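User: Study the fold:
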Amino acid sequence: MFFYRLLGKLPLSVLYGLASGVRIIFNYLISYRKKVIEMNLKNSFPEKTDNEIRVLRNKFYGYLTDQLVEFFYGVRISPQEMMQRMRFVNEEIITSHLNNNQPVVLVAGHQGNWEWAIHRLGLSGNAYDVVYQRLNNKDFNEFTMEVRSRFQGVTLLEKRESIIASRDRKDILRAICLAADQAPQKPESAYWTTFLNQDTAFFTGMERFARDYNYPVIFVELIRTGRGEYSMSFESLASPENYEKMEKGEIIEKFARRLEKSIIAYPDQYLWSHRRWKHTKPEQINIKW
């Protein structure tokens, strides 16, 4: 982990220079997940030409490599710099609930810079439970945990333990943060919908959790506004007083539609290298609400 920490100690300007070099390597030398990226882009945007797909792929590599070095920079970034680089929009949507002793669920996709978003939330003065997925590499997972927990407002909950942990913490006034666009491991028990022109499986945990505890659901949009500059905006997605009238799956559907709208508006800022559509929709769906 010494190398990881050493890398993070470099000035951001130097790290961006490294990112520009890695972008060229990814794009032209090792073709980092190029087939996955192009397939995801073509399936998501069938109206785009091959040249438009290549341009979008190149922009994505620039976004991805910048985000990579920004993650390492999280080792040294000061609270003041973090608050300058990640701007909140409509934060009162969260604080109005918390001020009324009402915990909330925040849902986001893999856009912008979710690592810096964790830092920024930790500096907000409120309590945030961030559900994460453990990485396969033990050393890098340990380093990631160390970086993500730098600021005191964040509590990290591993996904496999989050249900029990969240139940134990139900009386704590906080916001629960979920990246709700990952591919479920069990497609037969997932919620399926058309997302970016493809059959797509979504975890049901976000909706089940909101309904079980009567927590409002707030959509989080993470957008890069410039190199090293981001906005983090909040938008009400679902309210407990409406849950009895809503069909099962409707909260997930609202999330899918809102995230899709954001991706279409900022197509180079989504994690296209992720094998999001690796599952085929099964003939039988068995969701246990």
About this structure: Strands lie at 86-89, 104-108, 128-132, 154-158, 175-179, 191-195, 198-202, 217-226, 229-238.
